[in-house]
Write a structure and sequence with these properties.
Strand content of chain B: 5-15%
Number of domains of chain B: 2
CATH architecture of the largest domain in chain B: 3-Layer(aba) Sandwich
Radius of gyration of chain A: 26 Å
Number of domains of chain A: 1
Order of helices and strands of chain B: HHEHEHEHEEEHHHHEHEH
Strand order of the largest sheet of chain A: 4-1-6-7
Number of helices of chain A: 1
Structural class of chain B: alpha/beta
Strand order of the largest sheet of chain B: 2-1-3-4
Largest sheet of chain A: 4 strands, antiparallel
Strand content of chain A: 25-35%
Structural class of chain A: alpha+beta
CATH topology of the largest domain in chain B: Rossmann fold
Shape of chain B: elongated
Distance between the termini of chain B: 89 Å
Number of helices of chain B: 11
CATH superfamily of the largest domain in chain B: Nitrogenase molybdenum iron protein domain
Order of helices and strands of chain A: HEEEEEEEE
Oligomer: heterodimer
């Protein structure tokens, strides 16, 4: 009888502890709170990227079966990949991106990555990133990479809500 | 009942303590049950470790400094492979008599070959063409290793796929930088002095990729064949030895090198005969021991390059 009582009390404690730890985090939210959508600015913006090198596919890129080989140039706006013409991108050629390009009011961030030719490991390389608003540059920044490494970096900028009187009448 | 009430505080304390202890052990064991990856060589173990990070336990059958060509498996190796979720071999007969494939097959564990898809260099030995298994000495081949290993690890543990991909991408970019650095370093050796003589034919991919040994079709110069074991094309022959001595005399090689995994006797004899210095000890079939500069793949390649450059330039 004494033995059974000990077992019962022991099970009670272990069970209680297990139930507590199993349900401890149940009241926490499953994911981050819904982020309020920010006003998207469309129409007038153009992104220009000018490499100081001919962009090539990176032979050191990760290649998995279920994912296409990474292109030589990768551009993301606020974490979302932008469509870039996969054609040959030569040194000094200006790449203009307008399609699917929608910065928002407030803080924005570009991520740009490009692979220089492996034959130019002795050179430093640069990528000029310009954001144009109706032809006028609002962001102009150059990202540098040294000794043939992949040129990668972020460009941060803040956009204000367009004023009503900015519209042409 | 009387006993229970009399000793109640002690009894309750013991119960609570033992419950917490038991629960902690069980919870800890469940939380830290990680997949186990077992590789044949130290290089592959390092690749797998770079990709898996702390999400998996990576073990290598070969200890640093061990020779994969002549290795004999032990009962401990069988136990290690029995606990594996994934086994990885180099392939191309690097593991003499395919000991890793046999271990995995006997334990009924999944096995992948890290060199699958590599552009293999073939060597003519005794009238036969043989694939050279030392393909990790080209950084571009190392990319194939890492891609194959990443695919296999993701298939084993798809839940952490993004973690593995992020780590693999970072490691591959480190390899890209290393590749550029090796080219830059070797470029400081005058072209006529870029002669690499080693104990066995382990450096064919390195010579081909980085343009060493022009007079030997950018391939290794070594008295011993591609394997130190008893396979076809292995071992030292008087003809090979004579060829090496002639190469050193013709080219005026300033130094020759021994390897960490092989007895240096033959190379020392050749150095004495030809009057050249020993340039140092290269990591070849295995990486260096823990806490050495060559304990990782990047470290191994870096140290080999520095040794070669310092001895030859």
């Amino acid at each position: 009888m004494r033995f059974l009582l000990i077992i019962f009390v022991w099970i009670f404690f272990v069970g209680g502890l297990w139930a507590y730890t199993a349900n401890r985090d149940a009241s926490l939210p499953a994911g981050p709170a819904q982020v309020a959508d920010r006003e998207v600015l469309t129409g007038a913006y153009v992104l220009e990227i000018t490499p100081s090198f001919s962009i090539e596919k990176d032979p050191f890129a990760l290649a998995l079966d279920d994912a296409p080989q990474a292109p030589g140039l990768e551009v993301r706006l606020n974490g979302q990949a932008l469509t870039v013409d996969p054609g040959k991108i030569l040194r000094g050629k200006v790449i203009r991106i307008t399609e699917g390009f929608a910065p928002t009011v407030g803080f924005n961030e570009f991520y740009v990555q490009a692979s220089p030719p492996m034959s130019e490991i002795h050179l430093d390389h640069g990528l000029r990133v310009r954001l144009l608003d109706r032809g006028a540059p609002v962001v102009d920044h150059t990202i540098w990479g040294s000794r043939g490494a992949v040129v990668a970096g972020t460009v941060n900028f803040t956009l204000a809500t367009p004023k009503e009187d900015d519209h042409d009448h | 009942m009387k006993f229970l009430f009399k000793k109640l505080p002690l009894f309750c304390s013991l119960l609570i303590f033992s419950s917490i202890l038991l629960f902690s052990v069980l919870a800890g064991a469940a939380q830290f049950k990680k997949p186990v990856i077992v590789s044949s060589t130290t290089q592959i173990a390092d690749f797998a470790r770079q990709v898996a990070g702390d999400q998996a336990v990576v073990k290598s059958i070969l200890a640093p400094g061990a020779d994969p060509h002549t290795y004999n498996v032990t009962p401990d190796d069988v136990q290690i492979v029995l606990g594996a979720d994934l086994c990885i071999e180099n392939g191309l007969h690097l593991e003499g008599k395919n000991w890793m494939a046999t271990l995995a097959k006997d334990a009924q564990k999944p096995l992948i070959t890290a060199t699958k898809g590599i552009q293999v260099l073939t060597i003519s030995e005794g009238g036969q063409s043989l694939p050279d298994p030392h393909s990790w000495f080209s950084l571009k081949n190392a990319v194939v290793y890492v891609n194959n290993i990443t695919r296999a690890i993701i298939a084993m543990d798809p839940e952490h796929s993004s973690h593995y991909q992020a780590r693999a991408k970072l490691f591959l970019q480190q390899l890209r930088v290393l590749d550029g650095w090796i080219r830059e370093q070797l470029n400081t050796i005058p072209p006529q002095r870029r002669i690499l003589v080693t104990t066995h034919d382990a450096f064919n991919y390195f010579c081909r990729e980085y343009r060493l040994n022009e007079n030997n079709d950018f391939l290794s110069i070594a008295p011993v064949g591609w394997s130190t074991g008893a396979e076809v094309g292995a071992g030292i022959t008087p003809e090979r030895r004579r060829k090496v001595v002639d190469s050193i005399r013709d080219s005026g090689a300033p130094a020759i090198f021994v390897e960490t995994t092989i007895n240096p006797k033959q190379i020392r004899e050749i150095a004495k005969e030809t009057g050249v210095k020993i340039g140092g000890e290269l990591y070849s079939d295995s990486m260096g021991p823990e806490d050495s500069a060559g304990e990782t793949y990047i470290g191994m390649m870096r140290e080999n390059t520095l040794l070669i450059v310092n001895a030859l330039k």
